Amino acid sequence: MNIRSKVDHLILWRINKGNTNFWRDNWSGLGKLAQFGGASTSVKGQISDYIIDTEWNTTKLRHVLPDNVVSQILNITINSSNLVDRPIWTTKTDGKFSCKSAWNCIRTHRNTSLVNKMNWNKKVPFKISFFLWRLLRNRIAVDVNMIKFGISLPSMCSYCTDHKQEDIEHLFLNSMVSSRISKHFNQHFGIVQRTASLRHHIINWWLTKGMFLLSLSRMVALRAIQGLLEVVVSLGMIKAK
Length: 241
What we know:
By secondary structure, this protein is mainly alpha-helical. It has two domains: about 5-105, no CATH class; about 115-240, no CATH class. Helix content is about 45%, strand content about 5%. It has twelve helices and four strands, in the order αβαββααβαααααααα. The chain has helices spanning about 5, 35, 60-65, 65-75, 100-105, 115-120, 125-135, 145-150, 170-175, 175-190, 200-205, 215-240, and strands at about 10-15, 50, 55, 85-90. The strands form two sheets. A two-stranded antiparallel ribbon has the order 1-4. Strands 2-3 form a two-stranded antiparallel sheet. Helix 9 (about 170-175) crosses helix 10 and helix 10 (about 175-190) packs antiparallel against helix 12. The chain is elongated. The chain starts with a helix and ends with a helix.
């Protein structure tokens, strides 16, 4: 992907000594003048080639550009001839470029999902958020995933007496240990567990209000703790394997 082509039109050059490319850089506010110049666009010229003593060379401009374009150029002020031309980043009021503002201009904005909003929270430790991100995308080194990468091993859950196949859903939701842990905290927080998938199970923990008589601030804290407990327990289980 050519990033420069996506942001070039957001850069406006302030003319000083005229060292900017006349045809390829956006200095007039009209974009690249190459779109108006026809055959003349093959000429590698600078703005200074069309300036005489800090004044526009009108005759030369009219020779290569349409009259309406020339009229707009004549309204552009030529500044000090001792300084190089300066780029102005038009998306910011101070005119200074930043990677963040450029990224915001070219990125494809998507609707924020509830899962991402709850997971990538400033109050949640990054280690926990990153683990949950991997967990929800099935990127944990459970037996089934290891086998997919060509590693030969028997798939047996370490937390079940009957050693069922170890995949994400089983290990963190349906195994004997995870089921007992979930049941314990569900009873403690008054959560009714009706979900059949790990993803819905975690979302259910996040959304359950629990003790509705608590104040709003304590309620927010409780919900954060509920969500964290589920992930911390899962992280502990994978470490204990």
